Amino acid sequence: MQIEKFVDQFELLAEAHGITTAALLQRLERQDDDRPRWIAVENGRGIGVASASMTPDRKVRLWLDCRDSIAYQPLVRAASAAFRTDVYTSVSGSDLLLRRAFTAEGFRLDYTEDVFAARFTTAAVALRKARLPDGFSLITADQADGRSWFTLDNTLRQDIRGNEGWRGDLKWFAEHTHGASNFDPAAHIIAVDDTNGEYAGLVRFWNRPGASPRLGMLAVLRQYRGCGLGSALLARGVEVASTWDHERFTGETAREATEMRALWIAMGGTETDSRQTLVLRRGD
Ligand SMILES: CC(C)(COP(=O)(O)OP(=O)(O)OC[C@H]1O[C@@H](n2cnc3c(N)ncnc32)[C@H](O)[C@@H]1OP(=O)(O)O)[C@@H](O)C(=O)NCCC(=O)NCCS
């Protein structure tokens, strides 16, 4: 097997992703995607791809998409050798072969998240008593001041496992909200402190084609926690996402996020999988 750095081998890349060349070109253009990629080639056929992206917290993340697990380790080795900084990846707890390929190349566990799923009906019953505390309002993303919403998102991320050190990037934020193909402003809800106009917390749900809606984030600024704001945001988000014709919604929550885990359990959520974030540390 050989590993080729992707330059313009579109047919090989499409084959390695298991899609047609036309679908690949459409996807690359739609997402304005020029991430570095490596293709695993076996007997002239593309059998797997590793791609790397950098998020605004300056973390390099690797993603693998393979037709055959023999491509895992050579791809991990080639892609991680291209960076001098720490490299992160995320693997499903049940994908032992993929995890083994990363650990064989020096990756170690950073943290674990559990994947929860809950029924909309059960969640709505559990949250029926959630009330917005006096002195707060809820607005949706299309009513929000873009700069304040962006600042809130950055501040809240500091308390979310894996997002520590996140330094906002307005362009990235725009691409991952209004610019995202499945963005529905009604499901991006912000709590506002009416006394001073401060944005105090947010919830967001993603409407994913062909998959259950995903609770992307629920977070409240520290000074506003414990008075029902989180439950009120969640209740509204569940109400909106329940109109998308799915029975359940899912979301990932870090093992140490005690309050969010309590909310999942209260909503009748069950753990369906886990995700492990692995890191290859450089310079330890
Ligand atoms: C999760 C979070 C949004 C809850 O916000 P909040 O405004 O404090 O929520 P509420 O006051 O409505 O409380 C909601 C529930 O959280 C749980 N909870 C709140 N504070 C808690 C605490 N100190 N210990 C344990 N559970 C707690 C309880 O189950 C509570 O429900 P109850 O009051 O009916 O018992 C908030 O803790 C937060 O922002 N955490 C950091 C971000 C995060 O980890 N988000 C999850 C990953 S996306």
User: Tally of extended strands?
Assistant: 12
| Average pLDDT taken over every residue | 95
Radius of gyration, in Å, reads 20 Å
What is the chain-wise order of helices and strands? EHHEEEHEHEHEHHEEEHEHE
The CATH class of the largest domain is identified as: Alpha Beta
In the predicted model, the low-confidence regions spanning at least 5 consecutive residues are none
Please tell me the total number of domains. 2
> How many strands, what sense, and barrel or not for the largest sheet?
8 strands, mixed
Structural class: alpha+beta
The ligands bound in this entry are: coenzyme A
Distance between the termini: 31 Å
CATH topology of the largest domain: Aminopeptidase
So what's the overall shape? elongated
State the CATH architecture of the largest domain: 3-Layer(aba) Sandwich
CATH fourth-tier homologous superfamily of the largest domain: Gcn5-related N-acetyltransferase (GNAT)
What are the salient characteristics of this protein?
four-stranded antiparallel beta sheet; binds coenzyme A; acyltransferase activity, transferring groups other than amino-acyl groups; Aminopeptidase; Acyl_CoA_acyltransferase; 2 domains; eight-stranded mixed beta sheet; transferase
Secondary-structure map:
Blueprint: E1 2-5, H1 10-17, H2 21-30, E2 37-42, E3 45-54, E4 60-66, H3 72-81, E5 87-92, H4 96-104, E6 108-119, H5 120-126, E7 136-140, H6 146-157, H7 170-175, E8 188-193, E9 199-206, E10 214-220, H8 229-241, E11 248-254, H9 258-266, E12 270-280
Parallel strand pairs: 4-5
Antiparallel strand pairs: 1-2, 2-3, 3-4, 5-12, 6-11, 6-12, 7-8, 8-9, 9-10
Helix pairs in contact: 1-2, 3-4
Bound molecules: coenzyme A (COA).
Coenzyme A is lined by residues 159-160, 217-220, 225-231, 253, 257-260, 262-263, 266.
